[in-house]
Amino acid sequence: MRLRALLFGACHHRILSLLLNHGRHMTTPSTSPQAEQQTQTHESETSFWWLIILLAIVAVSLLGLYFMNFNGGWGNQGDFGTFGDFLGGVLNPILGFATVGLLIWSLKLQMNELALSRQELALTRQELAETKKETAMSRQAMEQQVTHLKQEAELSELTRLLAKTTESYQITLSARFTIEELQYTKEGEKRSHHNFEMDFRNLLTKFYPSFSSSDQNSMSGQLLSDKEVLQNLNSIRFFTILISDLSLKYLSIKKSTEFARVYLSEAYDFLHTINQIHPNEITLDRAGKISHILINSVEIMPNNLTE
Description:
Strand order of the largest sheet: 1-2
Mean pLDDT: 79
Shape: rod-shaped
Distance between the termini: 125 Å
Number of strands: 2
Number of helices: 8
Number of domains: 2
Low-confidence stretches: 1-13, 22-31
Oligomer: single chain
Largest sheet: 2 strands, antiparallel
Strand content: 5-15%
């Protein structure tokens, strides 16, 4: 009985040590679920084989102790019965306890694997969320880049059209005209010119503005009655409206008067010039819009905005 108690205590101590060591390794944090799972699998296999070896050693020790104490040969049938009772009485509690320990061990291993699976699932969800967020940010950046490129292309095309239209405007201003007889009043004095010749730039920027409002009215009737002059003034007005619309479009895309101010100021100067002699509803409307934009901006305004 004392031998049985000693063997049972030794086996019990060994199994508890294995379970405690296994539990300690299970609760030790690892750097990653994959590494922890591999480590636990290796330790589980090692502990299992140690348990098998321990049980084999116990069985062999029991056989050795029996033959050392009862060395009279194999004995008869009764001796075998006694020997069987001895082995059963000693090994059954050990195997029963080992079975319970293995069951607990298996449950802990399954719980740990379940925890690892949950951890991996949480990491996977986190990675998916981060990937989704990065994808959304990349998509947003690409959309912004596409919008920026489209905006730059539109601004480049507008700049080209503004330059080309301004060039056509300047060419039209350089055209010369001739009026057989021009009669006008200036400072209360009646004057007349035969074969009056001038280019439209000097007419609109120097000659015509030098008259008073009443004198301008009497002169504009004679100028507009000439087909050549009227045709060129219509062309100048057309280019002026086109430059104004392109400048306003540039502002609507750029969203800043800092960059559009140059085009807006130039367009306003052209509108102011043509509105003195040959205005219409469109030129007056464009002049009002551009004047309002420039006055409400903090930029330097053209001198004629206050006129």
